[in-house]
## 1
Amino acid sequence: MALKVGRGAAAPPFLVMDVIAAANARQAALPPGAGNVIRMEVGQPGTGAPRGALDAAAAALRSGDPLGYTEAFGRASLRARIAAHCLDWYGLAVPTSRIAVTVGASGAFPLAFLAAFDPGDRVALAAPYYPPYVNILTALGIEPVILPTGAASRFQPTVAMLQQLDPPPDGLIVANPCNPAGTMLHPDELTAIAAWCAGEGVRLISDEIYHGLNYAAPLVTAAALNDGAIVVNSFSKYFSMTGWRIGWLVLPEDLVRPVECLAQNLFISAPHIAQVAAEAAFDCHDELQANVAHYRRARDHLVEALPRAGFPHLSPAEGAFYLYADITDRSNDSVAFCARMLAEAGVAATPGVDFDRARGAGFVRFSYCGPEADMREAAARLAAWR
Ligand SMILES: Cc1ncc(COP(=O)(O)O)c(C=O)c1O
C-alpha cells in the first residue's frame, strides 16, 4: 500500500544547484593548465568571514565555554548589537525584544510565514523572485500570488499592481535589493507600498538581506515604515558569512511571542559559535566596505562590457551582486543557453527559469561576487563567444 507523502515533498529543486554541479564537473574535466570555469552562477561572497569574526570564534573555541544552546532568540549581546546596527544604519530605535536571531534568513522564512499566515492564505510577490519564497509558502499550504514584473518597474512590484488584486492578499513579500534582478525599491516606492499594506491590512515581509550592497539608492528599512512589517536580514551577504548560518528578524510587537514559541520548537537556537562570530563582524566594517568596493568595480565593468558582449538588455544594477539579462533576442531556452555558455565559453550563469517559471526561459542571471579578475575575463570571453 502506498504511504502518504506530504505536500512539502513536492517542493521543486533550486535549479542553481544543478548549474553549480555542472560547473564543478566541467572544471574537473579540464586538463591542468587549461584555464578555469568562471563562476557567475553562485550567489555567495567568495571572501569569507571578516578577520575579527574569525578571531572571535577562535577565542570562543579556546575559552572553555561549552557553547551550548542559546535562548531561542539568540545571545542578548548579539541582539543588542543588531539593535545598535538598526540605529546606526537607519536611525531606527528598535527594542532588543523585537529582534530574533535565526538560522540564516532561510531559517527566518518558515518562522515568519508560520506566525503570520494560515494554510489557504494568499501572499503576493513579484516575479522574478528568490525561489525559496514560493517553495516554502507552497510547502506550508499558503498560496503564492505572482505579480509579473519587468524592466518598466525595475522588476519590483508597484502599488498599481497591488491595487489590481481583488481581494487584497493576506501578505506581500518584497526584496530590496532583490535577487535575481539586483534592483531596489527606492525610498518613495517602499514607503508607498508600506502605506498601502498598512491601509489594506496586508502583512508586509521585507527581505533586506542585501542591505549594505546598494549602489544606486539609499537604504530604508520597512520596519521604519510599517508597524506590522516583518523584516528579514542575514550575515550571509554584506557580512560575508554564508556558511555560518546566522540571520535575524525584526519583528512587529504582535508576532514576538508567537515567533519565539515557533523558534523554540523548530530550531531551539541558531549555532552558538556562529553567533559569537557574527557579533564581532559589526566591528569589521572597514574590511566589509572593501568587499563592497570590489563588487562596485565589478558591477561598473560588467554594466559597460556585457552589452558589448551580446547582453544589451540588463536590469539596472542597483544592489546585491546580480544582473538579470533578457536574452530573448538570442534564445528562448535559458537552460540550454546557459549549458552552451558553460561548455563553449567556460562561463557559468543561472537560467532565469529558477526565478520565474513563466518567463524565465528568456533570462539569465549573472552574479558578480567572484574575483574581480574573473569578472573582467568573463566579459572578454563572452564577447569572443557571441
Ligand atoms: C533574497 C535572498 N533571501 C534570502 C537568502 C538566504 O540567505 P541565508 O544565507 O541568510 O539563508 C538568499 C540567498 O541567496 C537570498 O538571495
## 2
Amino acid sequence: MLSSEHVPSIFFNKSRSIDETNLYDGDIDEGGANKTPYDIIEHDVTTLAKANNLPPPDSFDALQLGSERLRTIIAALHCNILVRKEDLVRNLDYIANILEAVHQDETRRLMEEDDGALSEIEPDSVPNEVRDWLAMTFTRSMSTIKRRPSDKPKFKSVAQAIRAGIMVDRYLRRLSIDIKFKTINEWTFDVFSVNEFTSGQCLRYVGFELMQRYNLPNKLHISITALNNFLEQMESGYSKYRNPYHNLIHAADVLQTTYQIIYNSGLMNWLNDHELFAMFIAAIVHDFEHTGTSNNFHIQSRSDVALIYNDRAVLENHHVSAAFRLMRIDDYNILSEFTPEEFKNFRHLVIEMVLATDMSSHFAQLKTMKSLLSMPENIEKSKALALVLHSADISHPGKPWSIHYSWTESLMEEYFKQGEKEKELGLPCSPLCDRDNTLVAESQIGFIQYIVEPSFVVMGDMLEKILKSLSVPDSELPSPSIPAKSIASSPSPPPSPKSSNDSNHQHDEDNGRERKPSSMTTPLPRPTIVRRPWIEYLKENRERWIREAEEEKRRKELKVIEEEP
Ligand SMILES: [Zn+2]
C-alpha cells in the first residue's frame, strides 16, 4: 500500500462537483480525517462503476464530471489500483463523447460568430504564406505547435485564422474609415482619400454610411443584403469602361455633395424618409454605366443607346433605366417592400432628378427655377431636388483647389480619350477633346463663370426660399425648447427643437444627424440664411486658373520666340 507522500497532489479532486459529492455523500467524508490519499483514490475508483444518471455528454455538468473521472483513472493507474476493464472502457468512452460534443459546439459557435466574413473568402484565394501567417498570428494552436515545413495547417484552423485576421483588419479599416467619415458632413470632404481607405470601394461605403445614418434600411424595410448587392453592382457598372472621370469616385462625390447641401441647409427637414432615400439613390445611379463619352458622341457615332433613346438625354436615360432594370432582379431589389404608391413616387423622383443632370438642359432648368423663385407658390420637390443634384454634379470647382484640380485632370483625360475615339471613327474632334490643343485653364474659368457660379446662386436662393416657407416668426412659437441663441449661433446644420410626440424624429447630436420628416404639422424656427461655402472656393479657384492661364500664355509666347529663326 502506498502512503500519502507517494501520491502526487495533482490526483486529488479538489473540485468535486456537487452532484457527484451528493451522490456519494457519507461514503467519503465519514471519518475522512483518518483516510490516506490512497484510500481516497481507491474510493474514487469505486465511483467509476456508477453508470446510471450521468449527465448527458453535451451538458455543462458532464464537463466537470468527465474531467474528475479522467483524473481518477490517471491516479489509479499511477498508484497501481485496479480499475475494472468494463469501468475503464465505459468511462473513457463517456469522456470521449464529452470531448466530441465540446468540439462540435465550439466549431458551430465559431462558424456562427462571423459567418459573413467566412462566406466572403475562398480558402484557395489566399496565398499559403498569408494563411500561415494568419494561422501563426491569430490562433493559439498554430503559435504553440511547431509544424514541420511539409505540414499544411488543417483547413478549419486556417479558416478560423483567416476569419480572425479579417476581423482585425476590418476593425482597423472600419476605425480609419470612421475617422474619415467624421468629415462627411463637411463641404471639404475628401472623397479621394476615402476611396483609398476603402480600397477603391468608396461608393458602397459612402452609400451605406448615409443610409445607415438615417436608419433608412430599417425604416423603409430595405434588405441589407439587397442593398449591399445593389451597391456592389453600382460600383461594377461605374467601372465597366474604366473612365478617368465618370467612375464610382465621381458617383460617391456627387452623393456626398448632394447630402452635404441638403444637410447643411436644413433642407433635410423638408424631406420624408422616402424622399431622402430617392435623393440618395438618384445621386448613386446618376451616371451608372457611363461610357466615358458625351451624348453628342453617341449621337454622332449612332450608337445603340442613341438609337434606343432617340438622341434625347441618351446617357441619362440609360443610367436611370439600367438602374431600374437592375432593381427588378430579386437579389438587387431594394424596393421590394415599397407599396405601389411609394414605388411610383420614388420612381418619379429618381427619373426627374437623373434626367435633369443632362447638361444640355442646364440653361432651361436654371431659367425655370429663376422664374419659380419670383413666384409666391412653393417650389415643387422634384424640381428643387433635381437642381440640388445637378449642382452637386458640377460642384468640383467650388471645392478646395487640390480636389478641384484632381477632378479637372481626370475630366480632361476623359475628354482626350473621346477625342482619340473620334479620330479613329473619322468624326470631328469635340471641343476640349484634342490632347494637343486645349486650353485647360481657360476652359475652367469659363466653366466657373458661366455654368457653376450661376447654378449655385440660383440653388442657394432656392434653398432660402424653401426654408423661409418652413419657418415662422419667433413670436408665433409656443415655447421653444432650444434657446433662440443656440439656433442663431449654430454653424451647421440648424437644429430643430425636439418634439416628444414625433416617433420618426431622429436625433444624434454627436454626428449632427437630426431631421424631421415633412409630415410635421407645426412650423419650426430655422435660420433662413444658407451658408454657401462654395463661394470662397469658386473665387479662389477662378483666380488661380487666371494666373495659370497667364502663365500658359507666356509659355506659348516664349515658345514662338524660340522657334523663330
Ligand atoms: Zn455626374
